[in-house]
Design goal:
single chain, 3 helices
Length: about 120
């Protein structure tokens, strides 16, 4: 298992190195083939900005990925608990022979929304 992790880490390092080299080559080509012209934004500056944006995106993705996972798990637990509660209420109503009044439009809409959210999981 450790060996596989080391291989993956080496692959990521190589990919990162390859991207750095490509960026260097593009910057070199732009400098040599397209001298700075007045009024236009320098393509090298754009590449650097793109690199900074990519870095910020990766940082944000790393920070929010655990939050998204936890949110999905929480939603799943809430839906499961609500489903169990609904089943228990229905069973209790059957046991005590409680006559149920029909659902209002608002209750029907809420039930449909709940079912659609549960099917998304």
């Amino acid at each position: 298992m450790e060996e596989e992790v080391d291989k993956l880490e080496l692959m990521f390092q190589k990919a990162d190195s390859d991207l750095d080299y490509i960026q260097y080559r593009v910057e070199y080509e732009i400098k040599s083939n397209h001298p700075d012209s007045a009024g236009e934004k320098n393509p090298i500056t754009l590449l650097k900005e793109l690199s900074a944006i990519k870095s910020r995106y990766q940082t944000l993705h790393a920070r929010f990925k655990p939050i998204a996972v936890e949110q999905k798990e929480t939603k799943s637990r809430i839906c499961a608990t609500l489903n169990k509660t609904t089943t228990m209420i229905q069973e209790l109503q059957k046991h005590i022979d409680l006559e149920l009044s029909p659902l209002t439009e608002e209750e029907k809409t809420a039930a449909q929304q709940l079912k659609s959210h549960m099917s998304d999981l």
